[in-house]
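Appendix B, Record 12. Input sequence as logged:
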Amino acid sequence: MEKELCDKLICEYNKKLYGFAISKTNSIERAEELAARITLEVYSSLLKRENIINVKAYIYRIAQNVYAHFTDEYKNSQYCDIDDFELADPDDFTEKIAQSEEYARLRCEIAYLSKLRREILVRHYYNNMKLSDIAKSLYIPLGTVKWHLSGAKSSLKEGMNIMRNIGKLGLDPIEMCSLGHDGNPGAKGDTSDFLAKRLTQNIAYAAYQNPLTINEIADELGVSPIFVADEVETLEEYGFMDRIGDKYLTNIFIQDTISEIEEGIQKLNVEYSAKVADMYIPQLIESLNAFDRSKVYIPNNDNNLWLWAGIMFALSNKLNFCMQNDSLDKFRVKRKDGGDYIAHAYIKRNLNLSYDSSKYNSCGSMNRGSNKYPIFSWQYNTNYDSRDMSWRENLYTDYEYLYEFYTDMLKKEPSQIEKYQRIRDKGYLTADDKVNLICIKDTNAKWIEQAEFVKSLPEAGEDIWALLNELGDKTYKLKEPTFPEHIRPLAKLYCKPMLVMHIIELLVNRGTLSLPNKEASYGLNTLLFCDKLPE
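Logged structural output:
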């Protein structure tokens, strides 16, 4: 056979022959020696032979024969001549090697090595690089390369002799839902963006109760540590995991849902929402009715829409522990992409509950400002409106376009048609081009908290706060066992009640609030504070 073709075949089969040696010896040192002998014999034989019909089978016979010689040296086994050797399997033996249990375990154990040791081992044994060349390419001393290679071999020997068990998440992985943030998202988004993949979610959950190493997380998930390491690196870089020595601990407020606990919390929420509503809503409605209506634009002068927005705003701001409590700020994480928020998520469970929990889903309060115009907005998304629940669709530019339209800066002409179409699609303009959300005139306020309307709303009295504190303590007591130790200080604050949706449901059932029609629902629970009102 021509030398050029022989060289090509040797390059093609080099890694496969090493895999064959590993599968037979289960030893790095012996595999190196056996692979070298097989390669030499194969190369010599190919140079001497012509017209080999089945190259794969021929190489397989040589490999088996050399292995027989090799075994004889160690175990005094009988010599087996290649010419008398019966071809056991004419198929591609390299495929079986690659699928063999031993080879699979070796590859698995290589993945468990540190990144540097894995790199050195792969370059040396699989890429045939000299140790001196590896040292130069990695910019480390030759002695360091030798030390890591020796350590890698020892780790592989140890790993091949142990049984790795797949953890619970590897057999029954979780899925997260309601991934969100409390604060300001960054350029790369929020929790839902960083934990978009199921693998990332399970990595985060694996290290939620206790700190784990990369390899321990990999064992729990039953995946290669290589994939885990990359994900953990990103999660740590952006503040979703904290490094503790060589271990990692997840810094996300993850809530699990258990039927018995959720039923208990629902019973408490129904009971206390009625008490709070009876104490707070009458004085709130009185305050809303007393507000100067000359400073308010309400679509179709519908007082029901005014009550919806006013009550929702007051409940989510005046009765919200999280917004009233500065101690939450210490739990916010300043992230590399500019984000500054507490990351939170739920474990998705198929619970058999006696009530429809989706009725209480919401996204709010959301404030949006503008650097162009004297406007700022507030919005609260729920299942009662016709908007996308996500915060991403609540753009500050939507309110700028709306303001431009009703102050005659935006015309229905080709150059501005996209702006017009946007606010029409959002439902902020009706079919006859009427503004479809509540606007409040306020020329003095620099931000929402300073607005005259906000100041006019009644504060919760001590009796109401006492009720809410009592509910919070009972809620936390039910949920405390589900939280790891490092999350409990944050959980105690977050378990303070947020009864907005329960009170709204109660008011709808009582008839205090009427369900809006389809058109009005697009601007429901939205306030635009501005210096000029629509006509």
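The two ends are 93 Å apart (CA to CA).
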